[in-house]
């Protein structure tokens, strides 16, 4: 029983850390996508393609 509890706690902690990192990464990816879109618009405007 003790091994089951230890295993469950370790698995739960790993899942919690992975979820936290994925949430943080999603925010960074959204910011990066926005920056890339802004860069694309700026380059198009600079070269007269817009």
What do you see in this structure?
The chain is mainly alpha-helical and 50 residues long. 90% of the residues lie in helices and 0% in strands. It contains one helix and no strands. The longest helix has 45 residues, at 2-46. 0% of the residues are buried.
Key traits:
about 50 residues; mainly alpha; 1 helix
Helix-and-strand structural type: mainly alpha
Give the uncertain stretches in residue-range form: none
Q: What are the secondary-structure elements, in order, as H or E?
A: H
Query: What is the helix content?
Result: over 70%
Q: What's the pLDDT, averaged over the residues?
A: 90
Query: Radius of gyration from the CA trace?
Result: 21 Å
- The rounded distance between the terminal residues' Cα atoms is 66 Å
Q: Beta fraction of the residues?
A: under 5%
Biggest sheet character? none
Number of helices: 1
CA-based shape: rod-shaped
Number of strands: 0
Describe the SSE topology.
Blueprint lengths: L1 H45 L4
In short:
The protein is mainly α.
